Amino acid sequence: MHKNFNLLVSCPRFHEKDAIAEIWYLYSNIGDNEVKAEQTIFPGLITAKTQLNPLESIRNLRDLIKTDPLILKFVLKIMPIETIVDTTQENINKVASDLGSRILPNETFRITAKSRFSRINPQELILEVAHFIDRKVNLTAPNKILLIQILGTITGLSLIEPDNILTKTEFLE
Question: Is domain 7-80+163-171 in CATH 3.30.70, yes or no?
Answer without folding.
Answer: yes
